Amino acid sequence: MRMSFCYLAVSALTLAACSSGPSEGSVTKPGPTPTASAPAPTATGTPVDIPDASAPFTLQSVAEFDNPFAVAFLPDGRALVTEKPGKVKLLRPGEQLADVAGVPAVDYGGQGGLLDIAPAPTFADDHGVYLSYSEPGQGGSALALAHATLDESGTAPKLTNLEVLFHQQPPGGGGQFGSIIAFAPDGESLFLSSGERQRKTPAQDPNSAMGKILHMTLDGKPAPDNPYLSAGGERAYIWSSGHRNPYGLTFDRAGNLWEIEMGPQGGDELNLILKGRNYGWPVVSNGDNYDGSPIPDHDTRPEFEAPKLWWNPSISPAGLVIYSGDDFPAWQGSAILGALSGQALVRAALNGKNAQKADQWDMGMRIRDVAQAPDGSLWLLQDGDGGKLMKAVPKQ
C-alpha cells in the first residue's frame, strides 16, 4: 500500500464495499514513521460534515473514487488508491488523479475485486509495490498476491514486471477475502491476511490457506520461521489460523502484530497475532450465526486464543493503523480503525499486549480504510461509489 515522491499538496490538486450481513461486514498497513524529508500534506479540499460533534477533528475531502478499498502513502506523501472494479489511482500534486496502467485482471463483484496495495520496503530503491486481489479463474475466484514495479518514466504511470507470488487454492465462490498486507518490522518478510471465503470450515483446515494469517518472504516463498514450514504446501505459509475475515493487520512499535476481523452477527475482534496460535473460528465466537443459532463463546474453549477486544453489536471493522503522529498526541500508540456497518472511527488504547476500548465517533458514513501519511497525518477512506479520501484535521 505504499518512488519518486512529492508531498500531497491538496490545495494544488484539481480533484474533483459492502454490507455487514452474511455477505460482508472490510494490515491495514502500518503507518509510516514521520520523517522530516516528507513534507506534510495540506488538506484544503471540501469540508465533510459528520454527525458526532464530540469528535476532536474535522474532515477535509481531497478526492473521490469508485468503490475504493485501500489507500497507501508513498514515502514522499503521494498516495496510491485501489478501486475494487480494478483500477489504481495515483494522487500527486498539481494534477488530477492519474490512472495507473498495467493492473491485473480482477474478479469484481460483492466483496471481490482489486483490494490492498502496499509499497515495498525497498520502494525507494526499486519502486516495487504489492497488490492483493480476487483473481478470476476456472471454478471461481482466488485471493492472489502480486508484485510489480511502479514505472513513472513515461507520460503516464504504469505497473510493469507484474508477477503473481501467491494464489489461495482452490478457487471458488464466496467473499471474505481478507487480503491485507503488512510488512515485518525488519522489512525482510510480509504477512497477508486470508479470509475463509464464507466457507467456515477452511479456517480450521491445517492444509488450507483460507481463514489464516500467512507469512512469506518478499518473493512469495514460505517464511523460514513459519511454524509448519516442514509440512510444505499451503500449510507451510500459515502463521496463525482460525480467522473469519481479517480486514486490518499492522505492527506496533514494539513489534507486536495486531489484527481486526469481522465476526458473524456480533463478535468483531481485535486480536494480538501470535505464532502458531488458533483463534477459534468457526468453533468459537463472541457473536452468533446469522440464523440466530448460538456459537460457543471464547471462554468456553481456552485452547483457542481469545480476542483482546470484541464488539457486540457488530461494527464491521476495516482498516487499522497504530497511530504515531503529532496531530493527536493523546492517541499515540493507539489502534485506530474504521467501521463499515458501524459507520464510525474507533480508537482502542494499547498497553503492551493488552487493549482497552477508548473512543468511537459517529461518522455518518462507512469507513473502509485508515492510513497514516509519512508526516504523521491521519487519513480516512470512505466506502462505496463516490468514496472520499479525507484528512482528519485537529479542531482548534
Automatic annotation (TrEMBL):
Keywords, comma-separated and alphabetical: Oxidoreductase, Signal
Q: Name one Pfam family in it.
A: GSDH
Where does this protein come from, organism-wise? Stakelama saccharophila
Q: What is the superkingdom listed in this entry's lineage? A: Bacteria
Might you give the EC number(s) for this enzyme?
1.1.5.-
Region Disordered: start-end pairs: 21-51
Record-given protein name: PQQ-dependent sugar dehydrogenase
Leader sequence segment: 1-25
Please list the residue ranges annotated as the Glucose/Sorbosone dehydrogenase domain: 65-391
Instruction: State one molecular function term (GO).
Output: oxidoreductase activity
Residue ranges annotated as compositionally biased, kind Low complexity, are 28-47
